């Protein structure tokens, strides 16, 4: 496996469910990101982990809970979501959390909340 | 308030002609700009970037122009090829923090017709 992988690729969940999105990067990077892309809206940064420490939380509701156990893995734990949380969730990584370092994106998880 | 705007949701050009994608921003603190390309079912991939100390950056068929006074940047693709058909996102970063935090536009879908 190379690059940034995300599982699952598609997820349908009810508002009372608990699920987790997984991201893995095989690039040896130190920074990892979660983005959300809703229909017809720009990509929105949700969380950033740099050297396993959370450095950005872009006012994300607590029903989204990130976890970064090591520099290669990033999770997004979901619970009691709302239908408006339906979106494409993208993971990315970069060597460091600086603008000069290119962010490499995974293919995303398409989430539908019923 | 959207700080990075791509006002054209879509653009259609003939193969071999020039494609021009536009992006406007409102925050004068932005000092680094990027373009990403996204194919369906894939994550965005980095295309080209420009620092605010420059007004032009070229990479093969792709050239980005920056007009700081107008807070406007554009991506030129010459000549356009059918494989360039994708969604193009501009993004901006900047300020005193020098982090990798990117603000994205909502994207322009480019279709290059054979």
Structure, described:
The complex is a heterodimer of chains A (114) and B (114). With 114 residues, chain A is mostly beta strands. Chain A is built from no helices and 11 strands. In chain A, strands 2, 4, 5, 6, 9, 10 and 11 form a 7-stranded mixed β-sheet that branches. The model of chain A has no long low-confidence stretch (mean pLDDT 93). Chain B has strands spanning 4-5, 10-14, 19-25, 30-38, 45-51, 56-59, 62-67, 72-77, 86-94, 103-104, 108-113. In chain B, the strands form 2 sheets. In chain B, strands 2, 4, 5, 9, 10 and 11 form a 6-stranded mixed β-sheet that branches. Chain B is mostly beta strands.
Distance between the termini of chain B: 38 Å
Shape of chain A: globular
Separation, N- and C-terminal Cα atoms of chain A: 32 Å
Percent range for β-strand residues of chain A? over 45%
- Percent of residues in helices of chain B: under 10%
What oligomeric assembly is this protein in? heterodimer
Record field, number of beta strands of chain A: 11
How many strand segments of chain B? 11
Q: What is the helix content of chain A?
A: under 10%
- What is the CA-atom radius of gyration of chain B, in angstroms? 14 Å
Structural class of chain B: mainly beta
Instruction: Supply Rg of chain A.
Output: 13 Å
Number of helices of chain B: 0
Low-pLDDT parts of chain B are none
Order of helices and strands of chain A: EEEEEEEEEEE
């Amino acid at each position: 496996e190379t690059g940034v992988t995300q599982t699952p690729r598609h997820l349908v969940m009810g508002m009372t469910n608990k699920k987790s999105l997984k991201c893995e990067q095989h690039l040896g990077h130190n920074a990892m990101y979660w983005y959300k892309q809703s229909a017809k809206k720009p990509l929105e940064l949700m969380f950033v982990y740099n050297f396993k420490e959370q450095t950005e939380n872009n006012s994300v509701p607590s029903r989204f809970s990130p976890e970064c156990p090591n520099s290669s893995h990033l999770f997004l734990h979901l619970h009691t979501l709302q239908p408006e949380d339906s979106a494409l969730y993208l993971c990315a990584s970069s060597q460091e959390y600086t603008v000069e370092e290119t962010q490499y994106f995974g293919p995303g998880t398409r989430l539908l909340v019923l | 308030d959207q700080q990075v705007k791509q006002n054209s949701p879509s653009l259609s050009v003939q193969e071999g002609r020039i494609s021009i994608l536009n992006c406007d921003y409102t925050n004068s603190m932005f000092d680094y700009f990027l373009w990403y390309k996204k194919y369906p079912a894939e994550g965005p991939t980095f295309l080209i970037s420009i620092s605010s100390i420059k007004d032009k950056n070229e990479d093969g068929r792709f050239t980005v122009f920056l007009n700081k006074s107008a807070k406007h940047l554009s991506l030129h693709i010459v000549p356009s090829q059918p494989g360039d058909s994708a969604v193009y996102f501009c993004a901006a970063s900047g300020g005193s923090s020098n982090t990798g935090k990117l603000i994205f536009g909502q994207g322009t879908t480019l279709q290059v017709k054979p």
